[in-house]
Amino acid sequence: MTTSLHEAVEKLYYLRDHYYDSTSSQSSQNEKWDLVKKEMIMVVEKIKSLGLTDVADVTSTIHPSIPQYLLGRAHNVMPEYDCEAQNYLSSAVKLNPSYVEAWNELGECFWKGGDTASAKNCFTCALEKCRNKVSLRNLSIVLRQLKVADTEERKKLLFEGLSLAKEAVQLDPSDGKSWLILGNAYFSVAFYSTHSDGYIHKALAAYAQSEKYEMNKRNFNTADLCFNKAMALFHDEKYQEALENLERSQKFEPDWELSRFKYDSTLKFLLNMKEMVALKGKLKPRKLNSFLKSINSKDLGPYKTNSTCKRVFLQDLVVGTNKNKYIVVKVVASVSYDGGSPLACCVCDKPDFAAIVTIYRLSQDYGLTIGDSLLIPEPQLQTIHVSLKGQVINFPCVRVDSPQNILVNGHNLQPTQMASMFIKFSSA
Q1: Is residue 115 in some structural domain?
Q2: Pfam family of this protein, just one (predicted)?
């Protein structure tokens, strides 16, 4: 009997995660959740109709915690917090304190309600009973979301979360969702390290593993995977692949506004950068020449007497890291991005050549001004190329991952002008 009830509850989750597999992509989110709720009510009524919910019934052969858990999990299928789910699941763990699945479900319920401290306690309790992948990856998520004032404490929590996500994958290397959570954990710690540490690339490798096993099992919402992978690709400046993954995300969840917004804002960002490079920041030739002539020895700071580094011009750069070289450019336009980081600007060092500079880890309160001189040591050059829906976007781009190494008007940035970046994931 309990087997059929478990199957009925799991069908709810399959419907939730795979609604658009068999339904027109024109269906709205409201239509989806109306159907899921309707099915949820039917499952709840079915469980209740069997007379298994009386916790005082000592004659039942089914442990009373099981129907309480199933009722709680059924209610928990909805995206918003459900107090009935919490009540049923709380009852389940009281009746059976060793019920790992109930602890995990209760933790997810608290998490939906924004009570991360209680969610953390639930997953910790479950792990005390048994080291399992669900508790490990959920605790990894919660640790990343705990609010702490101290930057070092936050960094510590992120690396603890990474360790837990790794353990979850080790317990079951074929679980696509565990790989997704590991990818998110790598992506989180990437913003507390340099780009050369490779955490974004490790995140992308984990997402690739998640895709590999997700294609076989279809056991969770693929839209989340495509969206989070797109965010990692964006910060790796692989814009073509980022846009393609955002498109895929929308196919799995056609009514998802965040995914559509990110797609539109990314494409707008790229088109604006292309335009600024083509038009040299829209500056008149006389104004541009005036800016370029104003570059002087004061803009060089310590590089004025540095014999190991040689100044070169933007058009002399080669793709990759230009060792023992630096550029001094003038900011001729800023290019805003609705997602915040990176700070992007169009720069010139000659009247006939422009490029984009993207700077990461800057405080949101800090920005560059048109006319600022920018010195970048060992500049990393790449050519951005995007071809999508008949539009071709090309422009040279210099990436600055460590702003503490650059000079603005001959001076280093202050610590308050730099900050670790934060990223919002979908679901996990």
Answers
A1: yes
A2: TTC5_OB
